[in-house]
Every structure is written in structure tokens, then in C-alpha cells.
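STRUCTURE:
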């Protein structure tokens, strides 16, 4: 069955033998979520869910003197996933967003890659999201070449094309159910931090916050996270620079209807004077993105449907009869990265930490993975299981990934902008060659999709440590990413190996035990974000037990009085 129409199935249930950490190389595709937009249309979608701003009964209890354990600023995909994870872990979380709760960001990303789908699967959202979009069998490259996603060892061997608002809708619903307090219509004015917490000052729109005197209020929290985009107020408030430059200006985009459907649900074409993308959402709407070398105007110059049509004709030779644009915008694409993702009790994630070329469709995806990396660490620190220094590993692991994406997406956009006939000819000949060279194409696919991203494991670590864990089949018919929905570490051992006296006591409420469905003898400790924290191939029982005890002490921390009382009710054998 064509990958375009297939349902996700288990395609790689075991661990790859390689321990190599791959960073994203040049791939293909376009993402419109990482530029600096100048909105020229109304981004309101009929039927958008009104956000319920009330905290649910599941909301956590804050520390004394704090209004929240964590304040997250920015209700895009990054902030929503992070806030939902923290609330699901029992923290009291407030989310501040300048937009009101009925506005949908139609201008943003449209590609969801395999690793992001795996993270959403670990939160019970992937299958529902897939139903809202269009599956592509691979990555569209130059010269008509397609890097086949079927080569990915993932339950999701495709690229999902779906509007960002669908991702936001599911993540907002999850966050609301977990107990996040939403404060839409709240603009951050600044913050102050000290040894005990952070005070966030904000201006609330009329009626957005009942306790904000004359529209200005403040909230006290243990930690604050800025997920508020390229123009981050939080990043500015802590004085972090955002060095970089604009790589392409005056890119136009729109969501349109067409009279003539393109031959492919995703088409990319770059000529001497223009490049354009047209992609189907699968519901009759198409995302059109284009750049015209001869129309370079200021960011705030209004764009219209005629400009979208013209650039599409320059690239494809036709405008497909575009009509009825529901949203039109112009933006520029910058390459920028903050030198640090943490300043004391304030952290950055997503576009607040890094922005890059839209090529490769990686913007939203990198932000989602920032959030998945940070959330379990922040929860462990706030709950007292782990020292504050655990948060330093967020910078160590995610900053290099941001750097790599800047390089790979930057290379792609520069290839699209090539002007010389010789350069464009080499580009269009090289892409099909890349597809035929399986090791290179596999690396390109693995990098852009996020599947091959790995984190430093340190000297002497097992070859699997730091690598992504695939969706391992477990004894009894289960699978790893189902178990990860509990938000805990997962200890995987051979079936029948874990006796009752295995040293899990320090982390009974933070570790779920499971067994291989195969006869594999490796023991794995998988982090809540789906990366392997520790592994051993030792066969002597005493040696394995000692190594496991050391790993648990390092990774899961120590119990608190609150968690010890309920520890034996919080773990189970899968």
C-alpha cells in the first residue's frame, strides 16, 4: 500500500545497533513557522474552539508564596505541550498568551515530522492529529526527487501536512484537561527573579484577568519559561541577545482554494527568479508559499492574492486557479539563536530560543522537542526529586540541535535561492543522486525528521545511552510509547528478571517496569521524553542490580514526603 494512504504500523520494534549521534543534515520541505511575519489578513477560523480559561480540578498545589509552580509564556505548540506536561506531572501551571482565545494562527507551520508524531503519540494525540491532515510518503527535494520516509524506523514513516492550529487545538485541550490555568489577552511587560522565584509582570486585556488592577498585574512563580516566539518578551527581559541575520525577505504565503489540483499533494519548485511551494491540507485548502526575486518590499507591505498567483506562475508555470484566500501574509526568514537557553530560573524554548529558515519544515518540530526535553526535568526539579543543576542539561542537549537545524535549513534555503544556471543544474542533478545513495538519503531523512537526533551520553556510557528509543514491543502485546503516556521513566528488562527486591524504592512513583517481548537481555532505562538514559548488557545479577541502582539514583532522584506516601500505588508491571 502506498505510504500516502497507509495507517501507521509498527515498523521498527527493536533498537538499532549503531550508537552514532546524527544531527540534522540538509533535507527538504518548507515550514512557515520560523520567520518574522507581517500579518496582512485576519487569522480567524470559523469554528475555532473557545479556550476554557478555568483551571480544572486536576490543577496542582503551588509552593507557599507562589501563584504557580511554573509560568509558561506563549500558547503556541511549544508552550502548550510544555504546560500540559507540567500540569500532568502535578504542577500548578499558568499559561500567559497575548492573543485572545478565539484567534487561530493560520500563518504558521504545516509539516509534522516523525519524531514529533512520536512525542505526540507518547501523549495520546498522534492518531487523532493524523486524521486531520495529509500523509506524504517522503520529503520533496529539488529536481523532483523524493527522499522516501518509508526508510524511517518509526511507527510514522511519513510527513504529515496539517495546519498548525490542529496541533494547537489538541495540545490546548490536553493542557486544559490537565489543569493548566490559561490567561489569554495577557501581555508580559517584564520580570524580576531572585533566589526563591520569579515575578512576572503583565498587562491584561479588559476582562482577561479579574485580579489585574487597572489592567496591570503580576504573578509569582518558581520558574518561568518563554515560549513566546521570535520577538520574545521573556528573552528580552533577561537581557539575552538574539544574534543573527535575515536570510530571505518578502516571502508571501496564503491558504487558498484552487480550481486545478496540483499533480502532487506537496510540490516544491525553485527557478532563477522564484521559488514556491503548494501543499494540500487534505480538506480542499492549500498552503501556498512563494518568493519573487524581483519583488523585495518592506515586511509591512500588504500582500494580496495576485502576488501569490504571480510567484506561483513564475515557479510552476501555473497558478492552479487560486481563489478565495482565507489568509494572506508576508514574512522574512531569519537565522538567529540565543547563546543560552537558561538564565537562572528563566528558560527559553522554541522560537524564543532559535529561529531559522523555513526550509525542511523543522521549526515547529524543533520547538515541540525542546518542550519534551525540558518538561520532565523541570517537573523533577520543582517536585524536589532532582537538583536544580538538572536544568543545565537542557542547554547542553538542545542548544547543539538548534545550531544544527540553523545550518541544515540555511543550506537548503540557499540552494533554493541559487541564481546561476550551473548552480541550479548541479542542485537539481544532485538531489536524485542523494536519493539513490541509501546511506546518505537515510541520514538526510533521519536528521530532518528528528529520528536520528541523539544527546551526549558521557564517557563510558553504553552505546545506546542518549539515543532515541524506538517504539519497542513489550511483553503482553504493549508498546513503549503507550507506556510513556504515564509521563514516567520506563525500565525495560528481560521477562521475569525483575524480582520483588529489585532496588526501585527511591523511585517507585517515577518508574514503570516493562519487559521485552523478545528474548533480548539488555536492560534499558528510558526517559520520559523517549530517550535512553541508561543501558547495560551485563549478565551477572549482582552487577546488573548495582548498575541499575546507580542509574536510578542519578536519573530519577530521591523521593519526597509527598511521593513516598503513595509510591507503591504509582508503579506497576506491564
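SEQUENCE:
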Amino acid at each position: 500500500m502506498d505510504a500516502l494512504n497507509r495507517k501507521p504500523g509498527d515498523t521498527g520494534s527493536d533498537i538499532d545497533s549503531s550508537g552514532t549521534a546524527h544531527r540534522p543534515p540538509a533535507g527538504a520541505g518548507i515550514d512557515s513557522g520560523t520567520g518574522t511575519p507581517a500579518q496582512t489578513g485576519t487569522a480567524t477560523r470559523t469554528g475555532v474552539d473557545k479556550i476554557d480559561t478555568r483551571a480544572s480540578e486536576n490543577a496542582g498545589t503551588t509552593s507557599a508564596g507562589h501563584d504557580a509552580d511554573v509560568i509558561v509564556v506563549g500558547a503556541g505548540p511549544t508552550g502548550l505541550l510544555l504546560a500540559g506536561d507540567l500540569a500532568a506531572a502535578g504542577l500548578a501551571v499558568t499559561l500567559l498568551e497575548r492573543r485572545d482565545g478565539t484567534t487561530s494562527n493560520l500563518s504558521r507551520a504545516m509539516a509534522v515530522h516523525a519524531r514529533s508524531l512520536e512525542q505526540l503519540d507518547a501523549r495520546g494525540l498522534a492518531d487523532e492529529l493524523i486524521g486531520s491532515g495529509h500523509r506524504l510518503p517522503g520529503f520533496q527535494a529539488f529536481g523532483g526527487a523524493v527522499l522516501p520516509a518509508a526508510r524511517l524506523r518509526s511507527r510514522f514513516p511519513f510527513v504529515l501536512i496539517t495546519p498548525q492550529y490542529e496541533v494547537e487545538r489538541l495540545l490546548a485541550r490536553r493542557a486544559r484537561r490537565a489543569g493548566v490555568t490559561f490567561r489569554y489577552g495577557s501581555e508580559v511587560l517584564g520580570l524580576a527573579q531572585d533566589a526563591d522565584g520569579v515575578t512576572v509582570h503583565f498587562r491584561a486585556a479588559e476582562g482577561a484577568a479579574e485580579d489585574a488592577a487597572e489592567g496591570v498585574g503580576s504573578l509569582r512563580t518558581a520558574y518561568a519559561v518563554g515560549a513566546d516566539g521570535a520577538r520574545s518578551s521573556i528573552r528580552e527581559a533577561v537581557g539575552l541577545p538574539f544574534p543573527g541575520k535575515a536570510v530571505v525577505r518578502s516571502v508571501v504565503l496564503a491558504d487558498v482554494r484552487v480550481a486545478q489540483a496540483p499533480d502532487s499533494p506537496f510540490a516544491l519548485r525553485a527557478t532563477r527568479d522564484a521559488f514556491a511551494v503548494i501543499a494540500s491540507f487534505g480538506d480542499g485548502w492549500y498552503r501556498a508559499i512563494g518568493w519573487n526575486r524581483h519583488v523585495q518590499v518592506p515586511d509591512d507591505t500588504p500582500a494580496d492574492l495576485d502576488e501569490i498567483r504571480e510567484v506561483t506562475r513564475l515557479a510552476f508555470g501555473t497558478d492552479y486557479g487560486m481563489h478565495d484566500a482565507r489568509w494572506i501574509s508576508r514574512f522574512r526568514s531569519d537565522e538567529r539563536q540565543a547563546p543560552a537557553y537558561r538564565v537562572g530560573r528563566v528558560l527559553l524554548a522554541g522560537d524564543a530560543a532559535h529561529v531559522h529558515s523555513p526550509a525542511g519544515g523543522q521549526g515547529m518540530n524543533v520547538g515541540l522537542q525542546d518542550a519534551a526535553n525540558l518538561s520532565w526535568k523541570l517537573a523533577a526539579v520543582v517536585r524536589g526529586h532532582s537538583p536544580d543543576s538538572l536544568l543545565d542539561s537542557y542547554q547542553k542537549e538542545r542548544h547543539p540541535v538548534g545550531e544544527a537545524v540553523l545550518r541544515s535549513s540555511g543550506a537548503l534555503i540557499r540552494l533554493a535561492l541559487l541564481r546561476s544556471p550551473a548552480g541550479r543544474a548541479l542542485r537539481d542533478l544532485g538531489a536524485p543522486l542523494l536519493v539513490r545513495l541509501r546511506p546518505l538519503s537515510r541520514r538526510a531523512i533521519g536528521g530532518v525528521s528528528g529520528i536520528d537526533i541523539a544527546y551526549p551520553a558521557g564517557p563510558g556510557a553504553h552505546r545506546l545511552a542518549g539515543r532515541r528509543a524506538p517504539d519497542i514491543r513489550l511483553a503482553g502485546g504493549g508498546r513503549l510509547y503507550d507506556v510513556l503516556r504515564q509521563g514516567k521513566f520506563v525500565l525495560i528488562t528481560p521477562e521475569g528478571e525483575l524480582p520483588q527486591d529489585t532496588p526501585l524504592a527511591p523511585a517507585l512513583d517515577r518508574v514503570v517496569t516493562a519487559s521485552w517481548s523478545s528474548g533480548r537481555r539488555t536492560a534499558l532505562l528510558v526517559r520520559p521524553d523517549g530517550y535512553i538514559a541508561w543501558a547495560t548488557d551485563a549478565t551477572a545479577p549482582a552487577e546488573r542490580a548495582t548498575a541499575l541502582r546507580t542509574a536510578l539514583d542519578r536519573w530519577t532522584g530521591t523521593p519526597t514526603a509527598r511521593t513516598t506516601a503513595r509510591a507503591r500505588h504509582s508503579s506497576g508491571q506491564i
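REMARK: Confidence is low (pLDDT under 50) at residues 1-14, 16-59, 209-213, 560-574.
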